[in-house]
Design brief:
259 residues; mainly alpha; 434 Repressor (Amino-terminal Domain); 60% helix
Length: 259
């Protein structure tokens, strides 16, 4: 089973891929160049440095914590784990709408007021991330409030990947080798560059990845923004998405094409 590279090796690869050096990254992150060199050499980065590195590298801080290995801070976790099913249903209905409808739902999600966290977020964890790169990718989706069934349904809708629910549990346990296809499709739903995600997980792409479908791009945005919703807010969005989808379906049936 392929082992993921350590975070220092990941950072070194990413710097080389982007044509950056420690000084350039340190300047962007407001850090000392020696701090960056220490991480590249294998030093475990602290929480503060990871938070500064994330925007400097163009990553969500959440994803950088998962790649680096430390526990994800509570403020980076989804607000409400019980919102997962409604989030999944809202995204699935949104993906059957025209692009304008998906953007309308995205604006709604962003407009909803932030509520107080009522409980800690504790995603199901089957293995340490060091057990395999697949475990890290599944964990990133878990922190977007997707359970295994959510991963199966949404990835099947917006990418060529069609896997059973239980297979995502096996990937999350680090017992399945990541393929170039899986990495490319996970990247689409994570809103990440497929070539970079492949490099960070140690998977060699056999060909240049195609750009993700517009629906996948929108799904990634919807999932990311929905992390801040409570279960009640997620149900509100889900009900609206279902209503919009039904109206869209009715409109298509009522206005057949042709002379």
């Amino acid at each position: 089973m392929t082992q993921p590279p350590g975070f220092g090796a990941m950072l070194a690869w990413l710097l080389g891929h982007r044509g950056l050096d420690a000084e350039a990254l340190a300047d962007r992150a407001g850090a000392a160049a020696d701090e960056i060199r220490e991480v590249v050499a294998g030093e475990t980065p602290g929480e503060g440095l990871l938070r500064r590195l994330a925007p400097a590298l163009g990553f969500h801080a959440l994803d950088l914590f998962i790649l680096a290995g430390p526990a994800v801070p509570e403020d980076l976790a989804p607000l409400d784990a019980t919102a997962a099913r409604s989030v999944r249903d809202a995204v699935l209905d949104a993906l059957r709408l025209p692009a304008a409808g998906r953007q309308e739902l995205l604006r709604l999600i962003r407009s909803l007021p932030q509520q107080e966290r009522s409980s800690a977020f504790a995603p199901k964890r089957l293995a340490d991330p060091a057990d395999g790169p697949g475990a890290r990718l599944v964990r990133m989706l878990q922190y977007r409030n997707l359970d295994w069934s959510g991963m199966a349904y949404i990835l099947a809708l917006v990418t060529p990947t069609y896997l059973s629910t239980v297979t995502y549990g096996v990937i999350g346990a680090g017992r399945v080798e990541l393929t170039p296809r899986l990495v490319t499709d996970f990247a689409a739903l994570l809103g990440m560059d497929a070539r970079e995600l492949a490099g960070l997980t140690g998977v060699a792409l056999t060909e240049a990845p195609q750009p993700p479908a517009p629906e996948a791009v929108d799904a990634a945005e919807l999932l990311w923004e929905a992390r801040r919703l409570s279960a009640a807010q997620a149900r509100q969005v889900s009900e609206l998405a279902r209503s919009m989808r039904e109206e869209s379906d009715t409109g298509h049936r009522g206005n057949p094409s042709g002379p």
